[in-house]
Design brief:
The protein has about 450 residues and is an alpha/beta fold. It is about 25% helix and about 20% strand. The protein has twelve helices and 17 strands. The strands form three sheets. Strands 1, 2, 3, 4, 5, 6, 7, 8, 11, 12 and 13 form an eleven-stranded mixed sheet that branches. About 50% of the residues are buried.
Length: about 450
């Protein structure tokens, strides 16, 4: 049994939690933990102050990172559908990517897994998984309740006067209604209604995707803000508002007396919008959403739960989105789906343990954005991009090899030109690529772009 750095105020609750740990495995909690999984839309790791930005401010997330676990090498996919399918199924896209906007109904998701384990389940925010040929709706994916944009029957507005479907009904909204407020209120209500049973809340945010309108908290631009443009000014406001929505859910759980048994997980589905250029560490970075370069899929990952996740963990292990489902299974003691999974639980690392981290991650990407495939696309329509990487080097299926620090991949390392470590890593990454399918197993290109 490990020592917790902080104990809850209520001594009886402390003793109960300790006993629960004693009678279970070192990495499981007997009392089922609630889960709130939040995923921002289009927001790279360098958009957050807890990851070193002095341009974007995220105080609520900063606090969660400081009092929980912050992972420095978490990778999504470069675009939304690929990331959403991967995080929900625990499977690499080479196994189950079908089409942009599609989660195939045959897939088992973390919603189904946790619902079968007795959890009340809800999803709110952005859906966009119902496209042909065999797309999914929330009930196909294990969710009891939903409030969603980009869903059958909804229109294009997502922020002001939003078009949202709530449990089968299109909401009647006005120009004074702000979509992120509505969906977060829905989740607060859901947690209140289910406070006496374990719940799983999945919040794939509407924020911070373009367009970039003002938020309810936006103020007139200062002279400095006016110089870097309206979109970037509003985008920074939107990052701050996303952080506020995180705080809103944390505060709701706190009011319910459930904070010490609720896991908060925060991440993002891909990199920042390509139209934005923003400062970071004395340089200016252009958004790389939809590209397979570092800025296209390097995202934040923060895990927090007082008395369960120790304060101040900073972890440099490799994590990718396929790892989320098995992590949720382990922390809840839930049986994994009986399909081939690519993920590996990082729950031990959340507890300050060594765990069994991956040495390599593999990625599959079939871009809707054609320019993303120009350098490395193979297979169907020369658009299938497969690569493997660790924290330092990255190898594509077509043989191009880069240092991860080469953010825009302008200087490939030719065979024999790298250090001995680089060449050893190249061989390890090639072995990982060779072990995976070499083309998409469910890809339906006739439904693609």
């Amino acid at each position: 049994m490990r020592d917790f750095p902080r104990f809850p105020i209520n001594l009886r609750r402390s003793i109960g939690l300790a006993l629960a740990i004693l009678i279970t495995s070192p990495f499981a909690i007997a009392e089922k933990l609630n889960i709130v999984l939040i995923m921002a839309d289009d927001s790279a790791v360098d958009n957050y102050s807890c990851y070193g930005s002095d341009f974007f401010q995220s105080p609520r997330l900063d606090h969660l990172a400081e009092t929980g676990a912050r992972f420095n090498y978490c990778y999504s996919e470069p675009v939304c559908t690929s990331s959403r399918v991967k995080i929900m199924t625990g499977r690499d896209g080479v196994r189950n990517y079908v089409n942009f906007g599609t989660l195939d109904k045959s897939e088992t998701t973390f919603g189904t897994m946790l619902k079968d384990a007795g959890y009340a389940t809800a999803v709110a925010g952005k859906w966009q998984l119902h496209a042909p040929p065999n797309g999914s709706l929330p009930e196909d994916s294990g969710f009891d309740a939903y409030c969603l944009w980009n869903f059958p029957g909804t229109g294009r507005e997502r922020y002001w006067n939003p078009s949202l479907n709530q449990n089968g009904t299109i909401l009647d909204t006005s120009v004074e209604d702000y979509g992120p407020d509505i969906v977060s209120d829905f989740l607060v209500d859901f947690m209140e209604e289910n406070h006496d049973r374990p719940f799983f809340v999945y919040y794939p945010m509407i924020l911070v995707h373009n367009p970039f309108p003002e938020t309810p908290d936006s103020e007139p631009a200062t002279k400095e803000e006016g110089e870097f443009g309206k979109d970037l000014k509003n985008y920074r406001d939107m990052v701050a508002y996303a952080d506020k929505m995180v705080g809103k859910l944390v505060d709701a759980v706190d009011r319910l007396g459930l904070r010490e048994k609720t896991i908060f997980i925060y991440t993002a589905d891909n990199g920042t919008n390509r139209t934005l250029t923003y400062p970071f560490n004395g340089a200016y970075y252009k958004g790389e959403k939809a590209y397979a370069t570092e800025g296209g899929y390097h995202v934040p990952l923060i895990v927090n739960c007082p008395t369960v996740v120790p304060s101040g963990i900073v972890n440099n292990d490799l994590i990718d989105f396929s790892d989320v489902l098995p992590t949720l299974a382990e922390l809840t003691g839930t049986k994994l789906p009986t399909v081939e999974l690519d993920g590996r639980s990082f729950w031990p690392q959340c507890l300050g343990k060594e765990g069994n981290p991956k040495k390599v991650i593999t990625q599959y990407y079939y871009p809707k954005f054609k320019p993303a495939a120009e350098k490395h696309g193979l297979g169907v329509r020369n658009r299938e991009i497969i690569w493997a990487q660790n924290q330092h080097f990255k190898l594509y299926q077509n043989g191009f090899f880069y240092a991860v620090a080469d953010r825009f991949e302008v200087d490939p390392i030719l065979p024999g030109d790298g250090t001995s470590y680089a060449e050893e890593t190249r061989a390890m990454l090639q072995k990982a690529i060779d072990a995976m399918p070499q083309t998409g197993q469910m890809l339906e290109p006739e439904y693609g772009p």
